[in-house]
Automatic annotation (TrEMBL):
Keywords: Hydrolase, Manganese, Metal-binding. NCBIfam families: amidohydrolases. Mn(2+) binds at C74, H76, E112, H141, H338. Its cofactor is Mn(2+). SUPFAM superfamilies: Bacterial exopeptidase dimerisation domain, Zn-dependent exopeptidases. Pfam families: M20_dimer (PF07687), Peptidase_M20 (PF01546). This is Amidohydrolase. The Mn(2+) ion enhances activity. Residues 163-257 form the Peptidase M20 dimerisation domain. It comes from Halalkalibacter nanhaiisediminis. GO terms for molecular function: metal ion binding; N-acetyldiaminopimelate deacetylase activity.
């Protein structure tokens, strides 16, 4: 709520800017929607995520988090700052009669986490109908691994489908001295694990990006007691729907071997964010915009990796694109997203703000014909 209150404070009273927030507007308690323009088409959308992460900051910077155990380790504070700057500029343009159409700026919460219903912030915003009239959508993400003046920008699928699994393998516990009297779920797990790790390499084409990672194993509480259950939790990442479906099917087949060895299992599979798809036309506009702002920019036409991004929920409904903006601080040790020493070169914020403004102007000029080609 503090971040939402700060955003509202920064936008209060700006000419031509309508500020809305609350569950009745966005379907979720936090977050802000700022609208600038005539209310007429074309309607262009900009999105910044606003979450912090449960990570203790270790940057030793003057501006580091004041809240113990919480920091902006994914650049969302930078995304928020850039969009606030964009709105101030758009307000000035509106006063000067330079806005032809409407711009909706979404400060979106809950990008990083799902609630008990398995939903992220983007899904609630879509359900709220707040973006129903938006015809095209753009977003930036800071990247601390490439330097200022470089970006990652690619059309098509650029980030992964995100699926998570929770497996409970059950057997019959007993005394560690008499394993023959048990059905040992730890032993069963030791057979299952190598098969799980082999799935991306042996069941998915090497031309298809696919990852399966086991991230948590729990079982047993004593050195001489074989437990009755073991839980295994992890994630699967894919780019295509075919690979996504195949990994899920193969996961269930691997687990079926447990029954043949006298045990049983329960599999809970949750389909999270879909793969992020960048619209070709909007990527072209983004490229024109970043080159206009920084003529010497280096554009890496590469996929963004196997991470997930709930912006993908929005771009399944609205043609959109996200660009990764180089922000590596060359004066400090290398870092990456979600690390306690995450930091950026703050000059990237000015470049990103200008790129967003330029792209917005181009999209408004293009009108309602922004769609994939």
């Amino acid at each position: 709520m503090q971040t939402t209150a700060y955003i509202i404070e920064q936008l209060a009273g700006l000419p031509g800017v309508k500020v809305e927030y609350g569950v009745d507007v966005l379907g979720i308690n936090t977050g802000v929607l700022a609208t600038i323009g005539t209310g007429q088409k074309p309607v262009v959308g900009l999105r910044a995520d606003i979450d912090a992460l449960p990570i203790t900051e270790e940057t030793n910077a003057d501006y580091q988090s004041l809240h113990s155990g919480v920091m902006h380790a994914c650049g969302h504070d930078g995304h928020t700052a850039m969009l606030i700057g964009v709105i101030h500029r758009l307000s000035e343009m509106y006063e000067a009669g330079q806005i032809r159409g409407t711009v909706k700026c979404l400060f979106q919460p809950a990008e990083e986490t799902e609630d008990s219903y398995g939903k992220t912030g983007a899904q609630y915003v879509l359900q709220s109908n707040a973006l129903d009239d938006v015809e095209s959508l753009i977003a930036l993400h800071l990247d601390p691994e490439i330097p200022l003046g470089e970006v990652k920008l690619k059309a098509g699928t650029v980030m992964a489908n995100v699926d998570t699994f929770s497996i409970t393998i059950s057997g019959t516990g007993g005394h560690g001295a008499y394993p023959e009297q048990t059905v040992d779920p730890i032993w069963l797990s030791s057979i299952v694990l190598p098969a799980l790790y082999s799935l991306p390499a042996r069941k998915i084409s090497p031309l298809e990006p696919a990852v399966l990672s086991v991230c948590e194993i729990k079982g047993g509480a004593s050195t001489n007691v074989i437990p009755s259950t073991v839980t295994i939790r992890g994630t699967m990442r894919t780019y295509s729907q075919e690979a996504r479906k195949s990994l899920a099917n193969e996961l269930a087949l691997v687990l079926s071997t447990v029954k043949g060895l006298g045990g049983s299992y329960e599999l809970k599979l949750h389909h999270g964010e879909p793969a992020l798809y960048n619209d070709h036309t909007i990527v072209s506009i983004f490229e024109e915009a970043i080159r206009a702002v920084e003529p010497n920019v280096i554009i890496h036409n590469d996929s963004y990796g196997m991470g997930g991004e709930d912006f993908s929920h929005l771009t399944k409904k609205i043609p959109g694109a996200m660009m990764f903006l180089g922000a590596k601080d060359l004066t400090k040790p290398n870092t990456s997203l979600h690390q306690p020493r995450f930091t950026i070169d703050e000059k990237a914020l000015v470049l990103g703000m200008e790129a967003l403004i330029c792209a917005t102007e181009k999209m408004l000029l293009k009108g309602g014909n922004v769609n994939d080609t």
